[in-house]
Amino acid sequence: MDGVAQIEARPRDRVPDCEVVIVGAGPYGLSAAAHLKALGMDVRIFGRAMEFWASKMPAGMLLRSPRVASNISDPARTLSLEAYESSAGVPPRAPLPLETFVDYGRWFQRELIPDLDRREVVSVCRNDAGFKVSLDDGEEFQCARVVVAAGIGSFQRTPAVFASLPTPQVSHCYQGRDLQNFSGARVAVIGAGQSALESAALLHEAGASVELIARNPFLRWIGAHSWLRQLGPISSMLYSPHDVGPAGISRLVAFPSLVKHIPLKLRDKIRTRAVRPAGSKWLPSRLKEVKLTTGRFVTEAASVGRTVEIRLDDGTYRSVDHVLLGTGYSVNVSRYRFLPSELIKDLDQLDGYPCLRTGFSSSVPGLHFIGAPAARTFGPLLYFVAGTEFASRELASHLVRNRVVRR
């Protein structure tokens, strides 16, 4: 319900134990908790701070986003990346190392959410109080609202052709494999986006023999038209500081509340164009000695002893020790294990994305989604850390206007 009216309290035996539960302690969950707590709301947040970034991303990775777009939003706008670096004595670097970003997020958590609960939420079920939340140690409690900020770890995209390969011979970029362990190995990297390209570079630098195989006929590089960014005020009209998407689109997607009102077909075109596979401009020099096979895709992949035999669409074969999938992710909220099937069936979705309204509200009253699952409604900014500013302020504004009165 939008507006200023408050929801009346439910019967006393069904009064929730807390107002809001946040599932996930990545940038979106931490930011949302900070904003809601600043408004005096009773919030419980669950998860390990920055766990996906720390354990599921390749070590040695550099962030694709510019520094200005790597700040986690806090209500007072004081806990910036620069503030962390200053307090920790860490020299500023661009592009930003993954390890620095993880440490920044954990510092943010310690400063603003010291009561973070590191237990795992295993189930969220509806009841008369709103929701019953079950934790991995058996504790259960009631809450009025649930904010899902569980990230993309459940959404790894694995092409069917690789599904039969045993785990030791295939992995995804988002599984946190230590690429240093592939020294001397033959590795085929599949994909044409940032994850695939950077993983190929890291593998090569670790001493692996690498071939990158991409369906795209050529590789794309972010910021390739650098002259468009050197036009002074005109460049400011074409690009937002978030640097999400090409000229023009970059400026548009910086306003998610506007994107939300664009017709779905056009909104989808804008979203896919803004995040099409591409690599950062600092990667080509690191890939000079990597074999790049473009315009080709794998049609067969089979485990043969300790090797993987793959066949490409041109009929050629490769024999490798490992296949690393840089194939990105596909949002599908039904893959969140803590959301039971009976709740999912009542959740309006579009191809795995929840259909959202003001305040990131879903069709299930009291259930909200922020981060990547919100990108189908609010645009591609929600895929990136830069989207925490809009998401947290929009969510907090809606929830404080529609608080559940507890007596």
Explain what you see:
This protein has 407 residues and is an alpha/beta fold. Helix content is 25%, strand content 19%. It has helices spanning 27-38, 51-55, 81-88, 98-112, 194-205, 233-238, 249-253, 256-259, 264-274, 341-344, 375-378, 388-401; strands at 18-23, 43-46, 121-127, 130-135, 140-148, 170-172, 186-190, 209-214, 291-294, 298-304, 307-312, 317-320, 322-325, 349-350, 353-354, 367-369. β7 (186-190), α5 and β8 (209-214) form a beta-alpha-beta unit. The radius of gyration is 22 Å and the shape is globular. Residues 1-12 have low confidence and may be disordered.
In short:
The protein has 12 helices and 16 strands. The protein has helices at 27-38, 51-55, 81-88, 98-112, 194-205, 233-238, 249-253, 256-259, 264-274, 341-344, 375-378, 388-401; strands at residues 18-23, 43-46, 121-127, 130-135, 140-148, 170-172, 186-190, 209-214, 291-294, 298-304, 307-312, 317-320, 322-325, 349-350, 353-354, 367-369.
